């Protein structure tokens, strides 16, 4: 198993190097390199399947370590397969874009041979109309936003005026409370004065009646 593991690991390193050099390979050798990468990936996949079988044949004390090494190779394989697939997709897309560009550059338009010119003009007009509609929509949004800001500003002034009136009312209420407290205090004092006066008057009358009669 160890020998197969080392061999598979070398193949993975080989594919990594080839993938890194794909951007510098000449067009004449590109197809050959791509085919070589695909073949090596298939060989690595086959080796990983064999390693999964051999892991179960390892002694119990080595099985866990062997399983980890095999799983690492499988992970590297999946990563390389994904990278190679993405490269192929980008290549196909790039070739398609180049073909479409060449077709557009090589296309010849006759004055009245077809309706392609009018179609292109209609497309341009539709595009321009769409831009104008978008601009009008933006203007409406800006106008609406300006109206909202103006309304918020007016509400702010209104709230500030209300806050000032509330503070004035609070100050007035505070003054009224002070006056009421003073009045209550004076009323209490007057009540005690009256009571003391009544007591003193009663005492004088009692003494006068007692000593003068």
Account of the 3D structure:
- The protein has 213 residues and is an all-alpha fold.
- Among the domains are: 1-105, t-snare proteins (Methane Monooxygenase Hydroxylase, Chain G, domain 1, Up-down Bundle); 174-212.
- The chain is 90% helix and 0% strand.
- The protein is built from four helices and no strands.
- It has helices spanning 2-20, 27-55, 60-106, 116-212.
- Helix 2 (27-55) packs antiparallel against helix 3 (60-106).
- It is elongated and about 150 Å long.
- The relative contact order is 0.04.
- The model has no long low-confidence stretch (mean pLDDT 75).
- The chain crosses the membrane at residues 192-212.
- Belongs to the GOSR2 family.
- It is found in: Endoplasmic reticulum membrane; Golgi apparatus, cis-Golgi network membrane.
Classified in CATH, the superfamily of the domain at 1-105 is t-snare proteins
Query: How much helicity do the residues have?
Result: over 70%
What best-fitting shape do the alpha-carbon axes yield? elongated
Residue-averaged pLDDT: 75
| Sheet of most strands | none
Content of β-strand:
under 5%
Low-pLDDT residue intervals, each spanning 5 or more residues: none
Subcellular location: Endoplasmic reticulum membrane; Golgi apparatus, cis-Golgi network membrane
Keywords: Acetylation, Coiled coil, Endoplasmic reticulum, Golgi apparatus, Membrane, Protein transport, Transmembrane, Transmembrane helix, Transport
GO molecular function: SNAP receptor activity; SNARE binding
Main location: endoplasmic reticulum
